[in-house]
Amino acid sequence: MIAMRSASYESRVTAISGSDLVARFGACRQAHGFSRRRTLRLLTGRKLLMLQSTLCYKVLMDHEKTDENAALDPAAMLALLQREQDEIPRRLARGIPWIMLAWGIAWFCGFGMLWLIDGARPTFAMPLPVSVISFIVLLVGAIVVSAIIGTRAGRGIRSTREAAFTGAVYGITGSAGFLAMYIFAIALSFNGMDPNLEPIFFPTAMGILVALMYLVAGAIWHAIPSIVMGGAILVVSLVAPFLGYPNHYLVFAIAGGGVFFGGAISTALYTR
Question: Residue 163 — very low, low, confident or very high, per pLDDT cuts 50/70/90?
Answer without folding.
Answer: confident
